[in-house]
C-alpha cells in the first residue's frame, strides 16, 4: 500500500493547492479525529492515443489496480472505466475520456493541436497524473472549447489532476445521511450541485452521491490569468448488496449529473 499512498498523497496535494483549495475546509467540517476515508477520485482525459484512458490507467495498474466497470455517457460523449485495488481501503479510481471524434471538426482540430504538444516522455512518469497542463492555451481557445463541451474546456484549461476526491459517508459517525452533510456544507457557505437533485441515486441503486460546485481557481493562460471552475468535492454513501458487502460500482445516471459540478 505504500506506493498507493504515495501516489494519492501527490494527487491530493495538487488537488488541494491547484484545483480545489476549499477541500481543507470540508475536512475541517467533517473529520472526527480520524482521517476521512476517500471513496474514489476521478480523472479526465481525451480519447486520443497519446493521452487516452489507458495511459492514465497504467500507473494505477502498475501498483495493483484492476479494471472493474465500464460506463457510457452518450449525451456528454464520454466513456469511462473504474479501477479497484485488492486492498478495499485503497480508493477506487474513475477515469473518463472525451470521445473527441464525435464533436465538430473545429473542436477535434483544436484538441489535437493541444495534445500534439505533449512530450511523449512526460507520459512515462506517473507524476503526469498530477502535473497539470502539458500544452499552451489561450483564453479564447478555452472559451471556444467550453462552448461546445464544458468537459473539453475544463480539461484544456487544467490538464491532468484529480477532478474530485470523494468522502465516504459510510465511515462517519456524526452523519449517516448525505442530506445532513449537504445541510452542513450549505450552512458554511458551500454551493451544492443540484443538477438531477441534490442527492443523486438512491438505496435502490445502492449508491447515493452529492457534490459541491467547483471552486473558481486562477489559471495561467498564455494571454493572462483568469478564474475558471476547478475541482469539487463529492460525497458518497454505499449500500450493501445481497452478499452483505457494500456496492463498489458506479451509477451512470448519477455520475452524469456529478460531471456538471464543473459547469459555469
Automatic annotation (TrEMBL):
SMART domains attached to this UniProt entry: DUF1338
Catalytic activity, EC: 1.13.11.93
Cofactor: Fe(2+)
Enzyme class, spelled out: oxidoreductase
Gene3D superfamilies linked to this entry: 3.10.180.50
Signal sequence annotation: none
Xref: Pfam families: HGLS (PF07063)
Keywords: Dioxygenase, Iron, Oxidoreductase
Family of this protein: Belongs to the 2-oxoadipate dioxygenase/decarboxylase family.
Name used for this protein in its record: 2-oxoadipate dioxygenase/decarboxylase
Lineage, opening ranks: Bacteria, Pseudomonadati, Pseudomonadota, Gammaproteobacteria, Vibrionales
